[in-house]
Amino acid sequence: MSSHAQQAQTLVEALPYIQKFTGKTIVVKYGGNAMISEELRQAVMKDIILLHLVGIRVVVVHGGGPEINDMLKKIGHQSKFVDGLRYTDETTMDVVQSVLCGKVNKNLVAQLNRLGGNAIGLCGMDGQMFQAECLDEKYGLVGKITRVNPEPVETALINGYIPVVSTVAQGTDADTAYNINADTAAAQLAVALHAEKLILLTDIRGLLKDPHDEQTLIHVVHTYEVPELIAAGVISGGMIPKMECCVDAIHGGVDRVHVLDGRIPHSILIELLSDRGIGTMLKREEGVDYDFC
To answer: pTM for this one?
Structure first.
């Protein structure tokens, strides 16, 4: 098949998916290597803009761990992690808020706009989008979301913007901001928006039977299998909270959750608009009891 014919075939293959998702909401949690590498960042931005232009309501939720680490290093403040979560004292919280809501958020918005998008930046405290209370004192100012107000994001979507959301929450139990895990924030926002899909970009292929062998990718996981996979050690370490977020999203009404390899250029388009599935998908099962979540 000639290259022109292949290009045409790719576009034809995308058509039914575009028709299926036009007008639907998709939340993309953006982070990891896809955020650090300029080539990968450009690919993600272009994917998001293309989806937006074909009528899909795309919401971007981002982290910014490397940038936070860099700023803490510049001011001579050591990064500390407890159970995989960043210990957030007052100094760290000041840096998290200024870096996430300021530098990282606005740089992403500017890059989307330069590439022809129509993006607007939002902080989790805007319009009380994310309200939270202290998760546990051992983590410092890390919050557990108690309420999500999707109205600021809905307003942006209705007005034709791509909302770009940073994951800092307004405290309800103290006069403080809270640092929120980006996967958790993306999952809860997807539920509040009644999103069709949640996409989590990661630095691995997806969920692997053998973490040292990318050929053991598990393409589809049913939510009722997650406790068994945790017990068997297939889901372990940092993948446990990520998969729990996925299950929470499904439990909350999101139809599909995809854990994708953000190291693959255009992984979002490949997953959404082609017949190829390149990551791990969790899907809602009718008639299944979700009470274990």
So the answer is: 0.92
